[in-house]
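Wait, mind explaining this?

_____
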Amino acid sequence: MRKMIRETELNAGDFIYPIFITEEQGKRNEVSSMPGVFQFSLDRLNEEVAEVRELGIPAIILFGLPHHKDEVGSQAYASQGVIQRATRQIKQSFPDMVVIADTCLCEFTDHGHCGLIEDGDVLNDESLELLAKTAVSQAEAGADIIAPSNMMDGFVSAIRQGLDEAGYAHIPIMSYAVKYASAFYGPFRDAANSAPAFGDRKTYQMDPANREEALREASSDVEQGLIF
């Protein structure tokens, strides 16, 4: 009877499975700081996705580890970037799988920050243009949902406008609305090879002590055009 009247339930259909993809060949590299989590090469990606589908998990989110990194993160929005190639491969082999693309530059920049850098400072507005360009490229490759995680000011609005103008008004945005500057991200940065080469991210990620700021940030994303 308790189960019959339970207000909240959690099952495999509620989950999103993260996959870290490398451009190496024949690789299934375990992440040392997260035992049981692996980086997969494109040629081994399908076997992991098949297992995810077998478990009844309906969605995956993709993080890319490119061979080439530069100061502008050009592989984030390249048509043959690792995320774009992986998305096309998955949608061809598993068309019913929901593919979510992480939309950030930190995995693709040689400095490891989430936006463009000039004289040690993050250029917010200039970074928005590249984030929108990345989102459009991911949608063109077949991503079902765009998931921006960069925490630049105005990023949802810029991405929404970019998607709409490119003919992808139907593609939803699932924002990382509240992202704290926290050491808890250490293992993730190992998995995604995205630790900053200098400094930290406190100028654009939030202070964990600011609860009310988090609520304002989430509301701001909704107002900017978040539709998921």
